[in-house]
Each structure stands twice: as structure tokens, then as C-alpha cells.
Amino acid sequence: MKPKANGADYMIHILLMLMAVMTILPFYNVFITSFADPASVVKQQFYLIPTSFNLSSYRMLLDGSYVGKALLNSLIVTVFGTSVNMLVTTCGAYALSKKSMPGRSIMMAGIVFTMLFSGGLIPYYLTIKGLQLINHYGAMIFPVAVSTFFLIVMINHFRTIPPSLEESAKIDGANDLYILFRIVIPISKPTIAAITLFYAVARWNEWYNAMLFMTDTDKHPMQLFLRNMLADVTKMARDDMGAAMMSQLNQGYPDGIKMASVIITMVPIMLVYPYLQKHFSAGVTLGAIKE
Amino acid sequence: MEKSLWARMVEHKYMYLLVFPLLVFYILFEYVPLYGLQLAFKEFNFAEGVWGSEWIGLANFQEIFLLDDFWTAFRNTVIIALGRLIFEFPVPIVVALLLNEVRTARLKKFYQVVYTFPHFLSWVIVSGILVNFLGSFGVLNQLLDILGFEKVSLLVDPESFRGLLFGSSIWKDMGWGTIIYLAAIAGINPSLYEAASIDGANRFHQMRYITWPSLKSTVVILLILQIGNTMSSGGSGFDQIFNLYNPAVYEKADILDTYVYRRTFSVGDSYGTSTAVGLFKSIINLALLVAANRAAKRLGQDGLY
């Protein structure tokens, strides 16, 4: 028996729908700006209904050598960064899930403490510099090799695996490495897939370490390239990118090019979003540190 | 019979191998910077490095406590954190309660999927989207112009900038925030609702007397978490502010994290004093976390550690 929709239902739907429209509208606007004829955007007319479809923003952007490089850099950081994330997190979490390992509680205390207290910007900067990571891709990968949050999610996951499974393998003479890679990881695929996705998104979104440590603009990832473009950092404006357009307007990058960059930077996230969606709950596990 | 410590360690030799890279990570990128915190009490000397620099006691702290900019940043950090608690924190709870009332599963899913998407974008992208929408030539102003209103410059007006921070955070993370509450709601025993409706409780009563009480413990934990995070760069919203602010709004938007960044990279010879600002912030953060955790335990919650 389904109750009939009443006034309250309609109110709720109107409210929720309005919020959905407010979420989508800015994206829609970025989208049409990026595909607009630059002239119609420049005229600043009310532009909610597209009057033109034009690829010139994308063409101008992709003609320059910068975007290709930035995308490649982002790809490198995402692929290698996520691999490092998963390797270090999975192996470490598996060991830390074993209460019988001597020294485990000291390690856990040391890790949890880093969530409460950290060195701050300058000591961090000097550390990376001391490790000779300035202008090295590693600066965008190693300092973010582990997220304590995902580490704890992973430890909790490994705890849910029945010990009998590992014990029987041990009786058959398997060592811990074999058990982890041949038994535990294969049955943990859903959790591993979820955490891989979350890590990959974080690596794709990397701009902060790049801003701090990558002085060589050829090594900038897409996010930092976009940030500099949005801020109209004019030294970024190489003569091979939209230069004619810029001198014509004499006011930094045209909106169409900026928005085309936003779209390009966003596409990978949009592509993985359907998969991310299935794993929402993995990213919000609470009360994780409890023993 | 209890095995000796050494025997147990040997038994776990592969486990130590597995945990080794993780420990290297925490030592290199968390504990080495902690060691560098001593700079707060030193006059940094580029040639001598952290260890060789000269101890100067609390002189760095005395210096920063005399700076107006420091106190502006401190005040902004506190005000913005309070604003986030008041304006941002309740939104996901309300949205979760509303979503829970949507009876069509597919529609509920649709709303959730739409609201959550922006969470996965960086603040770099979101700032680009916002500038396009709210900038002086953005859609909002075009619309206001057509309707005959004055244009608004939300991005450069100090009076509205904090509102923009709260609004854009809600826009980005409201959907993500609801997930945990929806999970808590999903865990409620359906027989409670059945019993209530037999007793004549309408939907509002059910929300008030069943759904809300079951959410309360989650709300308390998340509230405490957020208070404990006030000063951390994640909790204070460094990424957001850093990508949205500009010199026109520093007086209202500059927080300790953004202040340290600018001091470090634009004021020369400021490593010692900037580290002192960072340490000051970390100590307050630690105190807040410990206090918040104690409060959680007193309320009968599990606490965070």
C-alpha cells in the first residue's frame, strides 16, 4: 500500500529539484561558454541559451604545446602516484591488521599522532628540498604516498577477513607474502577498487605540491596549468598559445579558453564518476581508529 | 607456553617487510618535518640549515605577536571556522532527512548523484566554475543586469566574501556530507516505523522521533571531528580560500594557513617566524582535538582515539 503524494511531498521535490538545478547550472554554463563562438562571449550578452557551437576555444588550447604536456604530466602523476599509493597502503595495512605483530601498537600510535600534529609548511618544504625532490616528479607522488584515512579503512577491512582462511594456507606452508598477494588481495577486490579510485582522483587533482616544488613549468600537471591560467599568470602565456587572440583582447586568456581547460581537466573525473558512485560508502567510514 | 619476543618477531619477518615502506613514508614526510619545527625557536640560516641555525628562544613568537596581519589571520581563522559550523555543518543533515522522504528510489539516486559530483573536483576547477558564474561578467550579473539590478562583485567584495566561502563549500560538499547520514538512516530498523505508523504517527512525527534520534550520535561525532579540525588545513579550507581569494579580500579571508604561505614565499627571511605561526596553529589544533575528544567521551560517545 503506497500512500498518495501530498503537499509535503511536492514541497520536498521542488526544494530538491531546485538544489539539483543549482548544482548543474554552473556546469552547464562552463560547458556552453567553452563551445561558444569567442565573439559572442566577449560581447557579454546574456548567455544561457547557446547561440553558437564553435570549437575554436578547444582548437586554440590544443594548438599550444602546453596543454598536451600538462595532461601528460597529470597522467604520469596519476598512474605512478596511484600505484605507489596502493602498494604502500595495502602492504602496510595488511601488516598493521595483525595484532600479533610485535611493535604494532607503537607504529599505530605513531601514525595516529600525525593526524593530530604536523610540522607545517616550512619544515615540510625544507624536508622535500632536502630530499632533492624539487622539480622531480616524485615531489607530487611520495609526500602523498599514504592517506592515513584510507590506510585505516584498509586495516579495518583486512580485520574482517576470517583468520581461518589464512591459517589453513599457513598449514599448507604458505608464507605471509604469498597469503597477502594470492589469497587476501584477490578476495578484497571491491575494497581495493574503491580505494584505488579515491586515490586516483586525489592524484589527478594534485596542484599543491606541484605549485610548491615544480618551478619548471614543463613539469606542471593540468590542475596547476589551469590554476595559473585562471589567475591570468601572463608569464604562462607562451607565444604558441592563443597569442594572436590575447594581444587582440589585451586582457589575459579569453573566457572560452579558460572554460575549455576546465572541461578538459574535469573529463577524467566525469569518466570515473559512475564507478566512484558505487563506492561512496567506502570513503566515509567513521570511527576508524578504534582498536 | 608464551613464545619469546624474538621468536614472535621472526615469525612476523615478512610483515615487517610489508610495513617498512609505510614507516619510511611517515618518518620522511611526517616526522622529519616535525623535527624541523625547532625552526620556530631559531633564526634560520640558509648556509647552516635547520640544525646549524642559532637558537633565539621565543623571539620569533614575540615578533609575530606584534604583527597586525597575524592577528587578522587568526581572527579570520576563528570566525570562518565558526561560520562553517553554523552555516555548512547542518546542511547535509537537512538534505539527508529530505532525501529520506523521497519515495521513488530512482529519483533519490538521481538527486544524490547530482549533489555529490562536485565533491570530486579540485578547488582549482571549482574556482574556475565559480568565476565563470559569479564574476563581473558571469551569468549571475548578466541576469541581474537584464532584470535591472545593480551588478554584484561577490568575488572581490570583502563584505560578501565569507558568504561566498560558505555557499561554495555547501555547493561542493553537501552531497558528500549526506552519505554518512543516509548510511545511518539506512541502519534504522524498519519495524520502528511500522510500529509508529500503527500508533498513528505521521511522517513528520516519524522523522522527529525515529530518524532524528538515530542520527544524533553520528551528528555529535561529526561535529566534534569538525571542531577538532578547525585549525588543520583540511578543516580551515586552505584549498578553497587559496584558490578563491585575492588581495581585495585579505582582511576578511586571510587565514593562518594562507598567511603562512604568503609570508614564506613573498616576505624574505621569514622562515623562522612563519614556522612559529605554523606551530602556534598546530598547538591550538591539538588542544581543540584533545578537548573535542574528551567532550565526545563525556557524552558517552566512543571518541576518535
From TrEMBL, chain A:
Residues 71-276 form the ABC transmembrane type-1 domain. SUPFAM superfamilies: MetI-like. It comes from the Bacteria. The keyword Membrane applies. It is found in: Cell membrane. Gene3D superfamilies: MetI-like. It is a multi-pass membrane protein. The chain crosses the membrane at residues 12-31, 70-94, 106-125, 137-158, 179-202, 256-276. Coiled coil: none annotated. Keywords: Cell membrane, Membrane, Transmembrane, Transmembrane helix, Transport. This is Aldouronate transport system permease protein. The lineage of its organism: Bacteria, Bacillati, Bacillota, Bacilli, Bacillales.
From TrEMBL, chain B:
CDD domains: TM_PBP2. It comes from the Bacteria. Residues 74-292 form the ABC transmembrane type-1 domain. The keyword Nuclease does not apply. Its main location: membrane. InterPro entries: MetI-like (IPR000515), MetI-like_sf (IPR035906), UgpAE/MalFG_permease (IPR050809). It is found in: Cell membrane. It is a multi-pass membrane protein. The chain crosses the membrane at residues 12-29, 78-99, 120-144, 164-188, 209-228, 271-292. Pfam families: BPD_transp_1. Keywords: Cell membrane, Membrane, Transmembrane, Transmembrane helix, Transport. Belongs to the binding-protein-dependent transport system permease family. This is Aldouronate transport system permease protein.
